[in-house]
Please model this.
Amino acid sequence: MHMRFDVVVVGAGPAGAAAAYAAASGGLKVLLVERGRGAGSKQVYGGKVYSHYLEEALGDLKGAPIERWVGKERLSIVDDAGRTATLEYEGGSTRAFTAHLTKLAAWLVDRAASAGAVFVDEVRVDSLRRDPSGRFSGVEAGGELVEADVIIDAEGVNRLLLERAGLVERASTRDLALGVKEVVRIGEKEVEERFGLDKGEGLSWILVGGVTGGLPGGAFVYTNKDTVSLGLVLYVDAAARAIEEPVHSMIEKLRTHPALHRYWADGDVVEYAAKLTPESGYRYMPRRLVADGLMVAGDAAGMLLNLGYTFRGVDYAVYSGYMAGRAAIAARDRGGPTEENLRELYEEPLRRSRPFRDLWRLRGVERAMEGGDRYFRRYPALMGAALRSMFELGESTPSIYEALRGAAEESGISIIGALVDALMMARSI
Amino acid sequence: MGLTIAVGIKWVPNQQAVRFDERTGTLIREGVTSIVNPHDLDAVELALRIRDRYGGKVVALSMSPPSAVKGLEHVIGMGVDEGVLISDRAFAGADTLATSYVISSALRRLGGFDLALFGQETIDSSTAHIPAQVAGWLGLPYLYYATEVELDGSGRKVIVKRMLEDRAEWYELDMPAVLGVAMKSQLPRPVKLSNKLRLREENPIRTWSNAELKLDQRCVGLRGSPTIVAKSTWTPEVPRRRQILEGTPEEAARKLVEALFREGVLR
Model:
């Protein structure tokens, strides 16, 4: 059987599905290949998607499996004793929704299939093939070859195909984070009552400090329709050096954390998942995003932004996939997907795009967050001690300055140093 | 011409992913994916090998809710030629008798077959009834624990090898025949891209409801199922004693053997 397509897309995640959708919408013959069973079956993320780039790529979100529109954002710093300071933002307009990624990917794949893309699951692509001139000319799966004018590689964070093709180095643990996640069912009414949400309203909550046992990373909580997603993200390099217990027991600790467990008490844990993610999208980005006959999109292209207080991955993935699909169409009308054409039609526009410029502009944040112990243990301790002296009043009543100074002495941190760090952090954000 | 080989597959919850709710004692099915009963994949693999050697086609049948289409797609990805989804609300709640009745009726409707292969048993009920009962309904020869199948020279008989605990046996059966294939006897082949593409292009899956099979409602589904679950009990939990036997490995092994004799485990 001779198999030949205009475009072969590897990986049916948000990037691959969007690429297949865009290319098929332009009349190209598209094959979308997924290794797992069903779309998005190899994917895990926290739980929140910004809608802007999805709407831009798809035109609308009709029928999208949206759980809740996020109307409340929380950011908490927790010290080792469980004392928690929280900043809450609400009353704005909603720009993000919570969703289960497998459902969202399945929806995107349905859109791609409706546009004419052929979707095949349960097939693992083993390698990218080049013809004698060095041009990428197809993919090999289980000993079978599919030829393609252009390949869109959306294989995800674990980019074995690009490694084998010699386009990227083996990932360094310094560039990776490990996400672990549980979904707990508590019921629709309970979700709204316990988190103080309006009907259909969602919460996005990021926590740092004691929730990771002081390890660099953080915890997240997102509300779905009748379940809550909670989880941890740990920077692999730092975690591997300092970790003292397995991650499944760390997430157990998060779920039973004194300040948190009441939110999902008596719930059923209905799902457990873990996945690697780029810690820093910018550092994870391959030097080149195109080659002759090849484009790279999504996580594999490092299209993920981690700001500590929020993450953008799914929408950036959709955006890059969409751009790659469009570029495949434009390249056809311009003499084919040569490296030069793809650079002009995909890589350069992507590098000029807002998401890409933001990844570059904000690349310092991840570095700063590697400050480690200071940010994830000692500052939370300082905050906990200061707030305790401010709010737990007995015989004496300290001023804010006195509370801070006492807390600084107690936690062994110089206030000047903390101010400098705060300034540096603020500047890089 | 070639053989027509039917193979039955069941769509079952993936047991490795199923967990118990300890408070209610029920299964948590939430988020649990279903899979093709793994032992049925041995039957699929054997069917494909027979077809690859002698020619013909393999037709997979599954009596199940519509979600089992994913299971039929999987075996078509392995190389099965056609799929039949037998699906109707009237078939729901069936025990093995009603199930085997529906499946044997569907096999009749295929319009002739040479071999009908089934997995040894399913991981979600482990009765191993279906192949035997199908053979009973259809009045065909039946052999279980089959591991290898060859045609004899006439082309109308099969030589079937089966493995028992202490010996191998060879049987000669007239076709059509029904076989239960020994679990773990084959290495199921992976899904191939070309097969999946053929699936997308030709869509070789048919759905038969009772509108096609026209079976008496009293003989199918819950109504056609005489089985009654009279009682179910929990396996008693035996607490671990956590004894540690000290000494060199030889001494510890000796103590262990002595203890097992004392307990009557060894005699």
Chain A has a mean pLDDT of 89.
